[in-house]
Write a structure and sequence with these properties.
CATH topology of the largest domain: Rossmann fold
Shape: globular
CATH superfamily of the largest domain: HUPs
Strand order of the largest sheet: 1-4-3-2-5-6
Distance between the termini: 25 Å
CATH architecture of the largest domain: 3-Layer(aba) Sandwich
Number of strands: 11
Order of helices and strands: EHEHEHEHHHEHEEHHHEEEE
Number of helices: 10
Oligomer: single chain
Number of domains: 2
């Protein structure tokens, strides 16, 4: 695995892959890698002969009072894990390398970026799309792999690729979960033992919504209400939103189909977590960390 910091070196390394006639897959991350990230790298390998990963904690997507400064970081561990997952190129740029000065031109996500995560975290998706566009411009991958846990992010990246004709195939890989259903996240490290136990309620809430759908319920509001009731029963969980969502427009679904996404965000013991499930697939459509 070749480790790179400089933007110019990464651009040249990726150009060499393309010049050799090989497909290049790209997995952008913010580091503190876990099995979910490693699964993305393995999926990337299925789509290309060479795999590039990036690790960059992007300050543009953190709002005031969010956890940019304390976001977990472990560069040595990340290098070892990326190598174990088969990455060929590992790009770990510094903040100064990525942003010699803060960008004056940014990417507006449009209406789908103003709801759900975008409503709770104002400006978040401007930061996400701006950095992803810059990463894509440097790497110029044939395919990029994102995790479904960040389903709104993936939908907006796909829309950006379409609108700007970037020519990158976007692959969205299933969420990786612990044995009790908790979706893997770098932020799970914030959870103490009590909060970790309560965090499993997020996937149980999703399962309750899926069960309503499987029993014939087609009201998006009713399906979301079934999920929310599980969270509301635990006083230590503060729910930001629970919604049944159309997967392309990211609008609330009045009439649910199997393609709709049941998504939620909640704060557990001071840690904000997100999760979602595709109604027609259920949690069975995801992957267990040990599987």
């Amino acid at each position: 695995m070749r480790e790179i910091e400089r933007l110019s070196e990464m651009r040249a390394a990726c150009a060499a892959v393309r010049a050799a006639g090989e497909r290049l897959a790209f997995v952008p991350t913010m580091g503190f890698l876990h099995e979910g990230h490693l699964r993305l790298a393995r999926v990337a390998r299925e789509h290309a002969g060479r795999v590039a990963m990036s690790i960059f904690v992007n300050p543009l997507q953190f709002g005031p009072g969010e956890d940019f400064e304390r976001y977990p970081r472990d560069a040595a561990r990340d290098r070892a894990l990326a190598a174990s997952a088969g990455a060929d190129l590992l790009w770990m740029p510094s903040r100064e390398e990525m942003y010699p000065e803060l960008p004056r031109v940014t990417v507006a996500p449009g209406p789908a970026g103003d709801v759900f995560e975008g409503a709770v975290r104002a400006g978040h998706f401007v930061g996400v799309l701006t950095v992803v566009l810059k990463l894509f411009e440097v790497v110029r991958p044939d395919v990029a792999v994102f995790g479904r846990k960040d389903v709104q992010q993936a939908a907006l990246v796909r829309r950006m690729v379409t609108d700007f004709d970037l020519g990158v195939e976007i692959v969205v890989a299933p969420t990786v979960r612990e044995s009790d259903g908790l979706a893997l996240s770098s932020r799970n490290v914030y959870l103490d033992a009590a909060a970790r136990g309560r965090a499993a309620l997020l996937s149980r809430a999703l399962a309750a919504g899926v069960e309503r759908f499987r029993r014939g319920e087609r009201s998006g509001a009713a399906i979301a209400a079934a999920a929310r009731a599980v969270l509301d029963a635990e006083a230590a969980i503060a729910t930001d939103y629970v919604a049944c969502i159309e997967p392309v427009t990211f609008t609330a679904a009045a009439d649910a189909t199997g393609a709709c996404v049941l998504a939620l965000a909640a704060r557990v013991g001071g840690t904000r977590l997100i999760d979602n499930v595709v109604l027609g697939e259920g949690l069975e459509g995801d992957v267990r960390a040990g599987g």
